[in-house]
Amino acid sequence: MHSFRPAILHRHSLSITALLAFQVGYLFAQATLPTPVLTSLYPLGGKPGSTVEISFKGADIDGAKSILLSSIHGAYLEVPIVQIPEKKGMLAVKLPADVKSDLYDIRLVGRYGVSNPRVFQISPLTVVDSPGTNTKSDAAFKLSLGSAIHGVFKAGAPHWYSFGAKKGQRVLATFVGRDFDSRASLVGAVTDASGRELARLRGGLLDLRLPADGNYKLRVNDLMYGAGDEFGYRLSLITGAVVWAASKDTLYGWNLPGGQVVPGLRVNQGLPLERLKADAATSVRLIAENPWRTFAISSENEVPETAPTTATPVQIGQTFGGWFSARGTPRSFDLAFKSGDRFIIEVSSQQAGFSTDPSMVVESVKKDAAGVETLTAQAELNDPAATVQAPSVRVTQLDPSYAYEAKADGVFRVSISDPLNAANGRRHPYMLRIIKPAEVKMDQAIAMHPTLPKAAAVGPYEMASSNVWRQGITAIEVMLPGRNTQSDPLEFTLSNPPPGVTVLGGFVGKGQTLGYIGLRASADAAAGAKVLSGINHTAFLNWPIKDSAREVIFTRIAGAPAVGVVADQAPALIEQTTPGIPEVAVDGKLDIPLKVTRHPAFTDLLKLKVLGLTDVAKAPEATIAAKANDGKLTLDVKALKLAPGDYGFILQSPAKMSFRRNADDVTAAEFTAKKAAEAQVAAKKEVDAANAALKAIKPADKPAQTAQQAKVKEAADKLALTDKAKTAADKFSKEVATKNPAKDATFIVYSTPIRIRVKEAAKK
């Protein structure tokens, strides 16, 4: 349970009760090894320079040491956890006074590595804590404009607030639950003193120009009146700007200082967007103070008011940015190409975060002698084809892409639209790119933390985090949107690993979209975690799923991935024993020798599955017998239908091993019991020696007898104390061992990344 107290406004330190919860169950059952997973946290933000006491909910999050904060804009810091002895179970985080205002991924670093990220906002707004008792209008909690309101719905009842304002003030309230990894879909309304509704909170935004001086009430609730730890919110109630999107020198949003309304440009149920031409300093300031996520417009070649009725010429290598046309009218482009040209036409909008589902039509253009055009359908594209090698996390892909290799000179008419939004009177930005296959770069890459392949298409989906155990390897799965059958092979890597961790690199073959990067920890790698560099985006489940046939899977694209180090030995280290890149003909078979370095407690067999080479359901396997330290993987290249070229993959296997959670606690208790036993033995020897010395004293020497009898008593008293200490230590050691028994746990182990070269068949 959270504990709430009334907020103190204009304070310098934010204090909200925090508790650690350990909810181990079906949600995290696929791999029973300790894996830190956060399912929710409270509060969802804080103020620079404040002390925030955070309630983390999840599994295997004990032994907290620090948090990692990383923003999508590249800022990264590690902040230690401050323990509060007088408040059992609380974790306090002192936010630096100079930390930049932004939306951050927050991860907890503990005994078993680093957790998955949740969203945490840092901003200068005054923090207000819901008391939890403001569930009726007459119990509305009083606050001031310019506040970030933190609350969590513990029951289905709404939360009420009241505030004073002046006539003509423009008040905005913002919160989008999915942007904060919250299940709360917040709705609400502002009413005046008479109870008349003035404005509604819908689609994450409430926008109101106040009609008079006075006191007003704000009511908020979850759309479906959901309740629980995952239904938290951070509602910003402000009179400042809300920046919806930003390009290089232009901001779009509401209440922008000096902004001009763009008539008819709506992106949600709110008022039309305003546009502001801003210098770099102004853009940085407004975006930093923005109460919600700012979308990035990478390229803007034409403003929303511009809507040419004729096709715009584009060329291979060009990027063109604009806004989808109103009323569903397609925006058209003419692309001229030469024989032998290889290129990819892609529309980027949904992948940039916009709520769009673009459509693209490609037509071949022919002109007769009189200049009359004839259009022949070439392709009609909506969503891209499903990735054959399905990623571990379902990543929504709605942006169309078309690859072409020209056999003759020609011209394509490319027409793009966003029909669903157009039907609802909404317009969003897009980016049209015509690129060569080799130009698909890592800036589009999405990292994931892989799990074991599923036995069925439906079932549970777990939240994962990436941690490497000593003398072991973990893998980062990398998805490269926009690649297709023409895409060239690509090497990729990561940087900034924790001390003692080596990045082994990764490789994706021609025409493939999924690859793996290995990370290996040394035998003495220190426990800790780092945010990695080299990939800017990571896909995570917002919430774990029990049954994907009945529940909707929500995925969030977070910032850069992170990896943690666990200071325990992995069950197995699997390596390719032959150096270099083995070669094989397209019609041949290839044996790849493997070496296994085992943990002393791991004696089970390994059933290794190939990841990254083909569909995992059809992927080759290699079995290494129980207790064996070597084996081999055999690839039937002809059966796999691999074309000539280089390919990369990694091997993955479950590994069952007896493991004791909190082994350090058991070891410490056993050590204490051992020392207590040694102290008891030493005390017994002192008693025996004292009694022997007493017997050696002559009966006539009364003073010596008296003195020695005192020593005997002292030794006996000491022995009694050591007896009690040993009894207590033995009891405690037994209790700790009972609470933390050694059990079979299923780990996931990986090999070093493997690369092969497929060559043409030998000529006969």
Q: Can you count the beta strands? A: 54
Give the name of the CATH architecture of the largest domain. Answer: Sandwich
Assembly level:
single chain
The CATH class assignment of the largest domain is Mainly Beta
Description:
The strands form 11 sheets. Strands 3, 4, 6, 7, 8, 9, 10 and 11 form an 8-stranded mixed sheet that branches. The chain has a 7-stranded mixed sheet with strand order 39-40-41-38-36-43-44, with no helix packed on it. The radius of gyration is 32 Å and the shape is flat. The protein has 5 domains: 21-238, Jelly Rolls, CATH 2.60.120; 242-288, no CATH class; 312-439, Jelly Rolls; 446-661 and 747-759, Immunoglobulin-like (Sandwich), CATH 2.60.40; 663-739. It is mainly beta. Helix 4 (663-696) runs antiparallel to helix 5.
Summarize the structure.
This protein folds into five domains: 21-238, Jelly Rolls; 242-288, no CATH class; 312-439, Jelly Rolls (Sandwich); 446-661 and 747-759, Immunoglobulins (Immunoglobulin-like, Sandwich); 663-739. It contains five helices and 54 strands.
What's the helix and strand layout?
Layout: E1 21-22, E2 37-42, E3 45-46, E4 51-53, E5 55-59, E6 66-71, E7 76-83, E8 91-94, E9 102-110, E10 113-114, E11 118-122, E12 126-129, E13 141-142, E14 147-152, E15 159-165, E16 170-174, E17 186-191, E18 197-201, E19 205-209, E20 214-222, E21 232-238, E22 242-246, E23 250-254, E24 260-261, E25 274-277, H1 280-288, E26 295-296, E27 312-314, E28 319-323, E29 331-337, E30 342-348, E31 359-367, E32 373-381, E33 401-405, E34 410-417, H2 419-423, E35 429-435, E36 446-448, E37 467-470, E38 473-479, E39 490-492, E40 501-508, E41 514-521, E42 528-531, E43 537-541, E44 555-558, E45 562-569, E46 572-576, E47 583-585, E48 589-598, E49 606-611, E50 621-624, E51 630-636, H3 637-640, E52 645-660, H4 663-696, H5 702-739, E53 742-750, E54 754-759
Parallel strand pairs: 1-5, 3-11, 12-14, 13-15, 22-26, 27-29, 36-43, 37-45, 47-54
Antiparallel strand pairs: 2-5, 4-8, 6-7, 6-9, 7-8, 9-10, 9-11, 14-21, 15-20, 16-19, 16-21, 17-18, 17-20, 22-23, 23-25, 24-25, 28-35, 29-34, 30-33, 30-35, 31-32, 31-34, 36-38, 38-41, 39-40, 40-41, 42-45, 43-44, 46-48, 48-51, 49-50, 49-52, 52-53, 52-54
